[in-house]
Amino acid sequence: MSQRPGSYMSSEYAKQLGAKLRAIRTQQGLSLHGVEEKSQGRWKAVVVGSYERGDRAVTVQRLAELADFYGVPVQELLPGTTPGGAAEPPPKLVLDLERLAHVPPEKAGPLQRYAATIQSQRGDYNGKVLSIRQDDLRTLAVIYDQSPSVLTEQLISWGVLDADARRAVAHEEG
């Protein structure tokens, strides 16, 4: 997937993400204008509309804030997820946060910020490990512009993911 530098989302992914955002908003009976009113102007109708059309890329931070506003887990907003979860949950991926803290920020910065976002959403600050879903790994792969399996190998080499994570990713890609 060739992308412009700084462009984290393919237009197809942005469109799928937008469709998910629109579905959540309409499930809640909100118009774009209604979102702006309910958020007291924090979420402008024109901005949310551009996210929904896939015209404008949404940052992980803004996506997390929007999920929080709608009261849904971020994973519900990501393409490739089924509402309510699949029948059989895939193997868990567990990040070692203590090891992550020792990876240079220029390499692990995006992952550290993403993990911090998940922790704040869950109110989970035990600080030792953090379990993430396949969808989180897919999102991180988009951020790092790598395939999930390549990113998994990188995280294993950093000592942040256990080698068992390969099975979870193989399960996903198989």
From TrEMBL:
GO BP terms in the entry: negative regulation of DNA-templated transcription
Gene3D superfamilies: 1.10.10.1930, lambda repressor-like DNA-binding domains
Entries under InterPro entries matching the protein: BldD-like_C_sf, BldD_C, Cro/C1-type_HTH, Lambda_DNA-bd_dom_sf
Domain of life: Bacteria
Signal peptide from the UniProt entry: none
Domain annotation HTH cro/C1-type: ranges: 21-77
Matching CDD domains: BldD_C_like, HTH_XRE
SMART domains registered for this protein in UniProt: HTH_XRE
Name of this protein: HTH cro/C1-type domain-containing protein
Originating species: Streptomyces hundungensis
Taxonomic lineage from the root: Bacteria, Bacillati, Actinomycetota, Actinomycetes, Kitasatosporales
